[in-house]
Structure formats: structure tokens, C-alpha cells
Amino acid sequence: MNPWVIVAIAGLLETGWALGLKYSDGFTRLWPSVATLVMAVASFWLLSLAMKSLPVGTAYAVWVGIGAIGTAIAAVFLFQEPVNVMRVAGVMLILAGIISLKFA
């Protein structure tokens, strides 16, 4: 499988486990905690697979960026976090960084 696809899937799983941290309520709720841990392990494992053929700095930055963007967007819908110009600009800058690293 293409290592960029693997990083993308790992980044989406990072979004999942980041949101799971909120739902787990400090790891006091069993099933959200289990799901969070499973997604975290899967995300790290996929990232490690992608790093076999991608530069570590680039793979890690793209993984974190996908996770950050996904979490920020999902939090708006799931937790009613505010949307304002600065937040949107910040997400767009992260996205620009991911795109530039992909083509670097």
C-alpha cells in the first residue's frame, strides 16, 4: 500500500483517539477508553509502517497535521467549539504545511 495512504489512515485514527480522550472522561468510561486505546495503537503502528519508506520528519508532520485538522473540525460539530477567523486561518496554515511537505 502507498505509504502516503497509510499516513492518511493513521492521521484519521489520530483524530479518532484524540476525540476518544474527551469521550473517555479521563479513562473513567470503559468502552470509550478501550476504543481510544485501540485507535491510538493502530495509529502509531500504521505511522511506523509508513516511516519505513518516508522521511521521519515529513511523515510525522503530516500525521500530526491530519490529526490536528480532523480533531479541530470534528470538535466544532461534536462539542460546539467556536469557529472564528483565527481558528480557520490556523487550520488553513496547517493544511498548507501538510501540502507543502507532501510535495517537498
Describe this entry's structure for a reader.
The structure is a single chain. The chain is mainly α and 104 residues long. The protein is built from four helices and no strands. Helix 1 packs antiparallel against helix 2 and helix 3 runs antiparallel to helix 4. The two termini are 21 Å apart.
In short:
The protein is mostly helical and 104 residues long. Helices cover 83% and strands 0% of the residues.
Give the low-confidence spans.
none
Q: Which bin fits the share of residues in helices?
A: over 70%
Q: Determine Rg (CA atoms, Å).
A: 14 Å
**Average of per-residue pLDDT values:** 95
- Specify the overall morphology: flat
Kindly, what is the distance between the CA atoms of the first and last residues, rounded to a whole number of angstroms? 21 Å
Order of helices and strands: HHHH
Q: Given the structure, what is the number of helices?
A: 4
State the secondary-structure class. Answer: mainly alpha
Tell how many strands the DSSP assignment holds. 0
Beta-strand proportion:
under 5%
Biggest sheet overview = none
Name the descriptors.
mainly alpha; 83% helix; 104 residues
Layout of strands and helices, then pairs:
Blueprint: H1 3-24, H2 30-50, H3 56-79, H4 85-103
Helix pairs in contact: 1-2, 1-3, 3-4
